[in-house]
Amino acid sequence: MNEFELIQHFFTRSACAQGGENISLGIGDDCALLQIPAGQSCAVSTDTLVCGIHFPDNSPAFLLGQRALAVAVSDLAAMGATPIGFTLALTLPQIDAVWLQGFSEGLSAMAQRCAIALVGGDTTRGPLAMTMTVMGAVPKQQALLRSGAQDGDLLCVSGPLGAGAAAVPVVLGEVDPQTIDADTLQSLLAAYWSPQPQLQLGQYLRSKAHAALDISDGLLADCEHIAKASNVCLQIQQAHVPVAAAARQVLGDAAALECALSGGDDYQLAFTIAAGELGQLQQQFPAVRVIGQVCAGVGVELLDDLGQPITQQYSGYQHFN
After folding, report:
1. How many domains are contained in the chain?
2. What percent of the chain has pLDDT over 70?
3. What pTM was computed for the model?
4. Which domain covers residue 220, as residue numbers?
5. Residue 134 belongs to some domain of the structure
6. Of the candidates 161, 199, 175, 192, the residue with the CA atom closest to the CA atom of residue 250
7. In terms of domains, do 106 and 176 share one?
8. Helix and strand counts by DSSP (H, E) for the chain
9. Residues 222, 215: Cα–Cα separation, whole Å
10. Does residue 295 contact residue 232 with C-beta atoms inside 8 Å?
């Protein structure tokens, strides 16, 4: 099977490559053609996952297909965008039909869940890696940015944190899954392998939230991006940070809190919003929690119950640190 036969068999014919209302031309030509609705901007983001860095080399192909797309689409959610299409650049050490079938099925499952279509890409030989470029549409002047946080805003997160990071030792085979009860194990592995991009919330927050991003590298590290872009201080009340129950059950309270603060792999949204928006927001999205506030200053401050700063030695994941 050559490169073109591989693309045709495993991707062109897959459910996720069957186009959508905003796709004029999908796989098969030099470029895809997308139709961006009038009055909207095109949001574009790229994520690369490398074997041995972002996932272990024995990762189940179906689950890897789900995860690879979900973490990329999460960036569209963070901007308040509606997904349209994505490209996949896949580097393979060899052609493995069984692996490719599982990967393409997992990719299609997540694509259908997120209502996004595969419109092109590339395949090449080398160490296993995949690059997803996702494209969406957002009304002009309504995209959620990191740079709009205002003094007096509430700082919120869209749901519990820490389960994705707590799952990593299990995924890496460092913890025997048989030592974890079935429901807890399922919650951990779902958080890692099948994160749910917060698309509906992101779209709701357009013209409401002042700043937003998705939590991929850790709550503290990612909030630092908002603080820097907005030239403000984000104060986080440690006791208000929602920690995933599954992480607590496996790691205990202290280690689970550390995962929630700096572990990453959550793909929840962190955002700032005026206090007057909170009531209606929580009626629509009851998992949203207020974890702090925006004030004058710089950086991120983690506070204890008495309002005193807590020193953190590690704030989140960095590739070259």
Report:
1. 2
2. 92
3. 0.92
4. 154-303
5. yes
6. 175
7. no
8. 10, 12
9. 6
10. yes
